[in-house]
Design a protein that fits this description.
Mean pLDDT: 91
CATH superfamily of the largest domain: Ribonuclease Inhibitor
Oligomer: single chain
Distance between the termini: 120 Å
Shape: rod-shaped
Number of helices: 0
Number of strands: 46
CATH class of the largest domain: Alpha Beta
Low-confidence stretches: none
Strand content: 25-35%
Largest sheet: 8 strands, parallel
CATH architecture of the largest domain: Alpha-Beta Horseshoe
CATH topology of the largest domain: Leucine-rich repeat, LRR (right-handed beta-alpha superhelix)
Number of domains: 4
Length: 514
C-alpha cells in the first residue's frame, strides 16, 4: 500500500491504537478525522505527507512523534486534538498548513528542527516548553505570539532571525538567551512579555527592532551583545525594573524613546560608536542620575552626568534623578527639546552663551520656583516652561521674546528690565513687573547697542530717576577710569551715546551710581 485513502478511518469511534505499515507514504485528507478514542499512533519512516484534517478532533491523542521522512503536514491536521501534550517536528518538514495545531489546548511541549518555524503555534495557551533545534534558521513573525503559558524557550544555535512579534505577549516567559547565531530581533519580538526578568542578547545580533522588549515590565537584567548596531525606537520602553544598561561600542544608533519610562534605570553607559541618540531616549527615567559617554565617542560627551554633543554647545538631556542646583556650562548655546523635561533640579542657571531654548525644554520641572533668562536668548520654543507648577517668577535680562506661549502664565509673574522692549502690562497671560537691579547695568541688547551714526551707544538700566555715571578707560591693563557723562534714569533707564569713541584705538565703559 502506498497511500491511505482519504476518510479511511473517518469517525471510527472505537479506534484506540493504530500502526501504519512501512509501505505507506501518504496519510490522506481526513484519514483519522474525529476518532475520539485514538490514544496512540505509530507513523513509519516511509510517510512523506500528512494530509489536511488528518487527525482533526482526535481528542484523546496524547503525543505524536513525526518521523524524519515527513515533508508536509496539512492544514488543520491536528485541529482540536485537545489532549495532545507533546510533539516533535523533524527538520525534514518543509511545510505546515494553516491552523494545523489550532485548538490543541494542552499542547505543552514542542520540539522543532524545521529550518523555518511558522506561526502554527501562535496563541496556544497550553504551550509551556519550546525547544528549537540547531537546524532551525528562521522564526517567522508571530510564531509563538500569545502563548500565554510558555515558560521555557531554548533557541537553537542555527537560528539567524527572530521575526516580528515572534514571542509577543508570552506573559509568563521569565528568561531568554538569544544565541550568537541570531542576527536580527524583529519588531515587537518580545513585547509585553510581562514576566521576562532576564534577557541575554548574543554577540551576533546586529539589530534590536522597534519595540522589541517594550512593556517587559519585570525585566531587570539585559546583556547586549557586542555586535549590536541598532537599538530601535522604543526597544526597551516601559521596562520599569531595568536598573542599568551598558551600550556596547558597536552601537551606532539609539532610537527615539528607546529606554523611556524605565523608572529604575539609575545609570547609562554609552559606547564609543554611538552616532545618533533619538528623541527622549532616556526620558522619564525617574531614578536616572548619570549618563556616561565613552571618552573616544566623537559625537557625544557627558559632564556631571548630563548628556551633551561633543562640542558641549548643545545640552541634550539632564537626567531626571539629578537634584539641587545646576549651572549650565558657558560653552552651551542650545538647550534642546526636553533637555530638562521632568527635572528634579530646584535651581538652574542659564549662562549668557545660550541663544536657543527648545520646545518643552523645561516641561514639568516642578522643583523650579524662578529662573533668569539672559539677554543672549533669542528663541524660546513653545511650551518650554509648561506645567512648571511651582514656577512663580521668570526674570528676563533682554527684550521680550517673539513667542510668549512657553509657560503657564496664570501662575507666574514676568520681570523685565527698564529700557528693554516689547513688554506690555501682560505677557503670555502673566502680569509683568519692572525689575530693578541692585546696581546699574549696561544692557547687552536693544536696537541702540553698538556703533550708531552719533557714536557708540547702549542703554543703562537701574532704578527710576536715579543718576548714574558712565566712565571710560582706554587700557584695561592699567585702567584709568574717567567720568564722561552723568545720566538720570527716567523710568528706570537711559540711553547713552559716546561721539568721541573714534578718537581712541579702544575704549571701555562701566557704570556706577553717583
Amino acid at each position: 500500500m502506498v497511500s491511505l485513502g482519504g476518510n479511511a478511518f473517518y469517525s471510527c469511534s472505537a479506534l484506540t491504537n493504530a500502526i501504519i505499515g512501512n509501505s505507506v507514504n501518504n496519510i490522506g485528507t481526513s484519514e483519522f478525522y474525529n476518532c475520539p478514542k485514538l490514544i496512540a499512533i505509530i507513523i513509519p519512516n516511509s510517510v512523506t505527507n500528512i494530509g489536511n484534517f488528518a487527525f482533526q478532533s482526535c481528542s484523546n491523542l496524547i503525543s505524536m512523534t513525526i518521523p524524519n521522512s515527513v515533508l508536509n503536514i496539512g492544514s488543520v491536521a491536528f485541529y482540536s486534538c485537545t489532549k495532545l501534550n507533546a510533539i516533535t517536528i523533524p527538520n525534514s518538514v518543509i511545510s505546515i498548513g494553516i491552523n494545523a495545531f489550532v485548538g490543541c489546548t494542552n499542547l505543552a511541549s514542542v520540539t522543532s528542527d524545521m529550518t523555518t518555524i511558522g506561526s502554527y503555534f501562535s496563541g496556544l495557551t497550553g504551550l509551556k516548553n519550546l525547544m528549537i533545534g540547531g537546524d532551525a534558521l528562521n522564526i517567522v513573525p508571530s510564531a509563538f505570539q500569545s502563548c500565554s503559558s510558555l515558560t521555557n524557550v531554548t533557541i537553537g544555535s542555527g537560528v539567524t532571525n527572530i521575526g516580528s512579534s515572534a514571542f509577543q505577549s508570552c506573559a509568563v516567559l521569565r528568561s531568554i538567551t538569544i544565541p550568537d547565531s541570531v542576527v536580527n530581533i524583529g519588531t515587537s519580538a518580545f513585547q509585553s512579555c510581562s514576566s521576562l526578568a532576564n534577557a541575554t542578547i548574543g554577540n551576533g545580533v546586529t539589530n534590536i527592532g522597534t519595540t522589541a522588549f517594550e512593556l517587559c515590565t519585570s525585566l531587570t537584567n539585559v546583556t547586549i551583545g557586542n555586535s549590536v548596531i541598532n537599538i530601535g525606537n522604543s526597544a526597551f520602553w516601559d521596562c520599569p525594573e531595568l536598573t542599568a544598561i551598558t551600550i556596547p561600542n558597536s552601537v551606532t544608533n539609539i532610537g527615539n524613546y528607546a529606554f523611556e519610562d524605565d523608572f529604575s534605570l539609575a545609570g547609562v553607559m554609552i559606547g564609543n560608536s554611538v552616532a545618533n541618540i533619538g528623541y527622549d531616549a532616556f526620558t522619564d527615567c525617574s531614578r536616572l542620575t548619570n549618563i556616561s559617554v565613552a571618552t573616544l565617542n566623537p559625537n557625544y560627551t557627558s559632564s556631571a552626568g548630563i548628556l551633551f554633543d561633543k562640542a558641549m554647545d548643545t545640552l541634550i538631556q539632564c537626567p531626571i534623578g539629578k537634584t539641587g542646583s545646576y549651572v549650565i556650562p558657558n560653552s552651551v548655546t542650545t538647550i534642546s527639546y526636553h533637555g530638562f523635561y521632568l527635572s528634579s533640579l530646584t535651581n538652574i542657571t542659564i549662562p549668557n552663551s545660550v541663544t536657543y531654548i527648545g520646545s518643552w525644554a523645561f516641561l514639568q520641572c516642578s522643583g523650579l520656583t524662578s529662573i533668569t533668562i539672559p539677554n543672549s536668548v533669542t528663541v524660546i520654543g513653545i511650551n518650554a516652561f509648561q506645567n512648571c507648577t511651582h514656577l512663580t517668577n521668570i526674570y528676563f535680562l533682554g527684550n521680550a521674546p517673539p513667542n510668549n506661549e512657553f509657560f503657564d502664565g496664570d501662575s507666574c509673574s514676568v520681570y523685565y528690565l527698564p529700557g528693554t522692549t516689547g513688554w506690555g502690562a501682560n505677557f503670555g497671560g502673566a502680569p509683568t513687573v519692572q525689575w530693578y537691579q541692585p546696581n546699574p547695568l549696561i544692557l547687552g541688547n536693544g536696537d541702540g547697542l553698538g556703533v550708531n551714526t552719533n557714536g557708540f551707544s547702549f542703554t543703562i538700566s537701574w532704578a527710576t530717576n536715579v543718576p548714574v555715571v558712565v566712565e571710560a578707560c582706554t587700557n584695561l591693563a592699567i585702567p584709568v577710569w574717567l567720568g564722561i557723562q552723568t545720566n538720570n534714569l527716567s523710568n528706570g533707564s537711559s540711553y547713552f551715546s559716546d561721539p568721541q569713541w573714534t578718537n581712541y584705538l579702544g575704549r571701555f565703559y562701566r557704570v556706577r551710581s553717583l
